[in-house]
Amino acid sequence: MSKSTVGFDWTTILIYLLLVIFGWMNIYSASLGDTPSSIFNFDEIYGKQALWIMLSFFMIVILLSIEAKFYMRFSSVIYIISLISILGLFVFGKTINGATSWYVFGGVSIQPGEFAKAATALALANYLGDIQTNVRTFSHQIKAFLIIAIPALIILPQPDAGSALVYAAFLFPLYREGLAGIYLVIGFIAVTVFVLTLVIGPLYVSIAIVVLALLSLFIKRNKRPGYIWILIGIIVGIGYSYSVDYIFQNVFEQRHRDRFNIVLGKEVDARGIGYNTNQSEIAIGSGGWLGKGWTEGTQTKGQFVPEQHTDYIFSTVGEEWGFLGTSLVVLLFVLLLLRLLFLAERQKSQFNRVYGYSVAGIIFLHFMVNIGMVTGILPTVGIPLPFFSYGGSGLWGFTILLFIFIKLDAERMSF
Amino acid sequence: MRRLLLYIIILTTGFIFLGRLFYLQIVDESFARLSEDNAIKVVYDYPQRGYIFDRNGELLVSNQPSYDVMAIPRNVKAFDTSEFCRILNITPEELSIKLDKAKIYSPRLPSIIVPQLTKSEYAYFQEKMRNYPGFYIQKRSLRDYQTESAANVLGYIAEVNRKIIEDNPYYISGDLIGKQGVEGQYEEMLRGVKGVKYIQKDRFNRVIGPYKEGIYDTLPKKGKDLTISIDAVLQAYGEKLMLNKRGGIVAIEPSTGEILTMITAPSYDPAQLVGRKRSPNFTKLYYDTIARPLYDRGLLAEYPPGSPFKTINALIALQEDVVDIHDRFSCSRGYVYGRGRKLGCHPHASPLDMIPGIAQSCNAYFANVYRRIIEKYPTPQQGIDVWAEHLDSFGLGDYLGSDLSTGRPGKIPNSKYYNQIYDYPTYKWYATATLSNAIGQGEVLLTPIQLANMTAAIANKGWFYTPHMIKEVDGQSIKQKEFTEKKYTTIEPRHFEPVIEGMHQVYKSGTAASLNIPGIEIAGKTGTAENFTKIGGKRVQLTDHSIFIAFAPVDNPKIALAVFVENGYWGGRYAGRIASLMIEKYLKGTITRTDMEDWILTHSLEEEYAKPISGEPFTINK
Prior knowledge:
Chain A has helices at residues 10-31, 45-65, 68-73, 75-87, 89-92, 113-129, 138-155, 161-165, 171-176, 181-200, 202-216, 227-251, 254-263, 275-285, 298-301, 313-345, 350-374, 392-410; strands at 94-96, 99-105, 108-110. By secondary structure, chain A is mainly α. In chain A, helix 1 runs antiparallel to helix 16 and helix 2 runs parallel beside helix 18. Chain A is globular and about 70 Å long. Chain A starts with 9 loop residues before the first helix and ends in a 5-residue tail after the last helix. Chain B has two domains: 65-139, CATH 3.30.1390; 232-526 and 536-614, DD-peptidase/beta-lactamase superfamily (Beta-lactamase). Chain B is elongated, with a radius of gyration of 32 Å. At the A-B interface, helix 9, helix 14, helix 15, helix 16 and helix 17 of A face helix 1 and helix 2 of B.
């Protein structure tokens, strides 16, 4: 250990351990077959996950022994290796569940996209941390966006829209570092118009845009934007709405449309496309206050919820641990995220702070999208719940992401 | 602001999630119900229904396997429907309707396509099974009757209807339940308790094992075997004697109250109401409103008891101390009372005292006796109520409270009844107005089992056990208080001697002198009861009912019985002969008087029964 080490943040480490262990208990229950065997039976899903957890502890030791400066110095190299690894998928990748996101070595499959997030976070931190970078200038913004967009655009056509979506999380560090708030506002408006277009159609959205624009004329002259900007806003808004409709109807595949339609309440189809969400809600809803008890979930045992040990693991928590369990998990995540923000804010270097915000942003986005999906608030987007869902690559990816930051935090005085 | 934004978003998201989870898990309970519905399947394990044995340990009812042809619609492939229909004896239309219904019920779950195959249908279909993917055979248990008689005693099994399911949570749709007779009365003992298994299903409705390792599961409890008091041989013999006649016979063992036979005629073979034939056969029996084979005359038919009722009037008179057995009354082919009305009688020696009065069944004698009973009290109301109370102690005029699945109270009129019909106090009425009661005609109505029980009480000299059918449960004698506690009549034992002697004389010198059984002393009483029907709204008299009561042997009664033969004319003609043959069969095991047996077997009353429905004018009592 370096003399500048001020100590690891044990709060974060404790929350990490609680999530990983509680996660494993639920994976155990969700993947428990008829014949329970040793928890280290590596033919079983829970056995494999136990192994991944062991190995990730081993990896933590390595991550924490590497000097913090290494991560900054080699961030570009790590980023480029990471890009090559996800590009290589187009040649060597194996398709699992419809997404060509995997390398398979022998019996082990690895998802390089899970590691690319940490690499991108390092690269972005490195770029924004550079004394010459000013995020308020347009050319630097473009470069920062490129760092984020390149891996996302490589992952998107695999196709893995869920993983690509996660890169939106980097807006948080960018905003923290001074990106104009208008980007977030425009992003928010874009999402709202997008959703409204799907729900009520582009015509009504266009009318609403025009009405809002006319109403803006009543704002005090000195506070309102110029007429030309209002006109541009109307044109862009309407054009966007119609192109969303066009893209939705003509570019999206039916399964994507279905996923949105269910969440928007346009299709109630419990046996068809909405099956996942519906079963997940039934499983969670059947838990009550205290749940049915560990490994006692009838929905879990009956495997009514598809992908329950991976993306839908939270439904097992809901069924077997009840509201007590689900609220505990939500609180643990909220605590972890708030702690990460607190840690990020106390960093001396911009590199560390950007990285910290990236970590918090990525984990938050997963948390929000995953639990939103499992509880039926958000559309079905297949991304895992950090530290919880089954999968070695995912677990390692998040472990690396988190523990690099813990190491950075521990050595924050040396910058 | 730049520092706070993400904090705010995180906290907001956390709160939204907690709210959503609170709603899903605590507020909205529909999810919990859905969960039970789709993940847990309840499977019942039906125990063997208990066997029924007769009093001599002879097996009457057991179980036989039955085979239902089941189908899981989504597994059914195209098949040769014409061959299928031919083997199973159904029409292609029926098959297609059944398959459509099954598909609507569930494509993944089994439905019954053809219920309850016979063994031969099953054997044949089993060989062709491989030609019909998606079909399979499910074994069930049905009743197997080892006897062709006693259908009314045994009752039958039917599928539960909606009302039963609503009233009794034990039963679910498709369950079987005993109806009527022993099956109905002892349903809970016979059926046992079905076992329940909670089975955990997966999303394809496949079974993946017991729910919670089976902690909520219960094992089925086998039904109890019952031994009933019926003597199967006597029952079958009685039914044979009653062929082509209508009426009821009830025989009781006086010392125990056990019902030895309970016959109704016409009847049917209990096996008719089993399996696939049940439904059409039941319909046929049910809609035979003329012969009414489902109507248990032994328990339900309320007949005027006729002369056997005189015995009880004699007992009441002795108890009320209004006659001495040596008091003689004269008879001039009848008894004349008020304004030239006359209660007729047949020719016999006159005057008579009690014993020959019973033996000769003198109407005039009993008219006098009856008047003395009623007129002992200041008002006829008081008199008749005292009289009715004595009758009540014999179990007459009310339900017996037995283990029989059905019954009727009969009718014993009291002062309230007569006050009402005579509009008292506007009009007064006197003993003479109720004089028919003296000879068991008029208002008095009794069921055969009430009359048999009355005979048993006479045989016991003043007490009886409530007549019952249950004898042993799983080999253990019954302990129910209502069947093992003596019920005493209001008549002192000493008064029974002369009446029994009178009944004995019925065989020695009286109206049944031709019906003696060599070597057995019998006490009995003939009865001939006028009866009426309505044809086109008009009251029409029919040929008299032939009635007989008897018990034997006189000094140690082993059997007491009552026989009603509808429209059999006088008591000795049908009922007396049948009673005599039944007693001989029961006490001796063989019939010595085969000429009498032949007479009964070869004589039919169908012609008599056809008269009132023929629409033609007819004569009676020929």
